């Protein structure tokens, strides 16, 4: 039996330095079963003044519980996870936390996985092979759709 570890963190937010985004800090829930990837994402997002990681989950079941209580703006969702995969969790989030937008973050960058993510209700898909800037741009575009897309 593998050890089940749940992670919940609440980070202090600081005022955003970018005036366009300063009006709202985007609250992010990380859902990733690999601890090293979660740490990397947490460190990357912590460096962004307009983003705040409010919680972390290692599987879909924990993610649903955290989303219901924390009410994130964005859920960064891995596809491959134990107990409930990211596609099923994304679909279930529509009922549990309908205001949250899901961005799928996956090693599986193929048409089938992208279609499954879209059908489940994901707002965006970012391959883990993409540069960090692509993920940050997707988060900002999904959380602030009225802003022009970042060229890159």
Question: What is the strand and helix layout of this fold?
Answer:
Layout: E1 26-31, H1 35-46, E2 51-57, H2 60-70, E3 74-77, H3 86-96, E4 101-106, H4 111-120, E5 124-127, H5 132-143
Rg, rounded, reads 14 Å
| Total DSSP E strands | 5
Q: Give the overall form.
A: globular
Number of helices: 5
Helix percent reads 25-40%
CATH class: Alpha Beta
CATH homologous superfamily classification: Response regulator
Strand content: 15-25%
Tell me the strand order in the biggest sheet.
2-1-3-4-5
Structure commentary:
The protein has about 150 residues and is of the alpha/beta class. It has a single domain (about 25-145), classed as 3-Layer(aba) Sandwich (Rossmann fold), CATH 3.40.50.2300. The protein contains five helices and five strands; from the N terminus they run E-H-E-H-E-H-E-H-E-H. It has helices spanning about 35-45, 60-70, 85-95, 110-120, 130-145, and strands at about 25-30, 50-55, 75, 100-105, 125. It has a five-stranded parallel sheet with strand order 2-1-3-4-5, with helices on both faces. Strand 4, helix 4 (about 110-120) and strand 5 form a beta-alpha-beta unit. Helix 2 runs parallel beside helix 3. The longest helix is centred in the first third of the chain and has 12 residues, at about 35-45. The chain is globular and about 30 Å long. The N and C termini lie far apart (about 45 Å).
């Amino acid at each position: 039996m593998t050890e089940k570890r749940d992670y919940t963190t609440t980070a202090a937010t600081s005022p955003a330095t970018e005036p366009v985004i300063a009006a709202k800090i985007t609250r992010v829930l990380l859902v990733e079963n690999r601890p090293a990837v979660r740490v990397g994402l947490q460190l990357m997002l912590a460096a962004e003044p307009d983003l705040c990681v409010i919680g972390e989950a290692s599987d879909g079941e924990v993610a649903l519980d955290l989303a219901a209580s924390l009410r994130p703006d964005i859920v960064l969702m891995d596809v491959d996870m134990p107990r409930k995969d990211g596609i099923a969790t994304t679909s279930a989030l529509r009922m549990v936390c309908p205001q949250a937008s899901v961005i799928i973050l996956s090693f599986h960058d193929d048409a089938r996985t992208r279609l499954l993510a879209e059908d489940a209700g994901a707002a965006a898909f970012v391959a883990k092979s993409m540069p960090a800037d692509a993920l940050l741009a997707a988060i900002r575009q999904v959380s602030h759709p009225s802003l022009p897309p970042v060229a890159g």
